[in-house]
Amino acid sequence: MASNDDAPTGAANGNSNAQPTLNVLAQYVKDLSFESPGAPNSLRGRDKAPGIAINVNVNANPLSDKQFDVNLTLNAKASFDQEVLFNVELVYGGVFAISGFPQEHMLPILFIECPRLLFPFARQIIAEATRNGGFPPLMLDPIDFAQMFQQKLAEDQAASKVKVS
Predict the structure, then answer these.
(1) What are the pLDDT digits (tens) for 80-99?
(2) Phi/psi of residue 38, nearest 5 degrees
(3) How far apart (Å, rounded) are the C-alpha atoms in residues 5 and 18?
(4) Residue 2's pLDDT is what?
(5) Going by C-beta distance under 8 Å and a sequence separation of 6 or more, which residues neighbour residue 137?
(6) What pLDDT band is residue 163 in, cutting at 50, 70 and 90?
(7) Rg of the Cα trace of the chain?
(8) pLDDT tier for residue 9 given thresholds of 50, 70 and 90
């Protein structure tokens, strides 16, 4: 016979202390662009790998008190010498229901945890777009969203000190 010791706690048991929740309500491609301005010449083989510049940005907007739209923007530009081989831009969004967290945890959840959940799907879209464009699939390395968030906070603090002076 099963023990009831493993039963969930919180609202399901009539306890008013509900557990914090983070749910993905929807995921979507907001914007996708792939350009290969030099095709078909840009598709020829080369002796060395092209340079690839990658930019990442995260934005979050409230939809209601407990729902947020988080957008992960990825730009990747491959070039060889002065020739642009391809440029791919993706804005991948998710709608998240977030409740039960202290207010001081909301920014880290929105700018670290939410994009961390979106990233594998956005990475796959980038890989497929570059492959469909005739190039080897661009497999983006994992992104440290916590480090990005800390860097953004430090930049914002530095900017606020400059404005005060």
Answers:
(1) 888 899 999 999 999 999 99
(2) -100, 10
(3) 18
(4) 47
(5) 127, 128, 130, 131
(6) low
(7) 21
(8) very low
Buried b (16+ CB within 10 A) or exposed e, 22-43: beeeeeeeeeeebebeeeeebe
Residue that the structure tokens 């039960």 belong to: 100
Cis previous bond, 40, omega within 30: yes
User: Which pTM value belongs to this model?
Assistant: 0.82
Q: How does 59-84 read in b/e, with b if 16+ C-beta sit within 10 Å?
A: ebeeeeeeebbbbbbbbbbbbeeeee
CA 116/CA 38 separation, integer angstroms = 34
Nearest to 24 by CA among 115, 128, 89, 105: 115
Backbone angles phi, psi at 105, to 5 degrees: -95, -10
Q: H-type helices in the chain, by residue range? A: 106-108, 114-132, 145-164
What DSSP string runs through 70-113?
A: EEEEEEEEEEETTEEEEEEEEEEEEEEEEES--GGGHHHIIIII
- State percent of the chain over pLDDT 70: 87
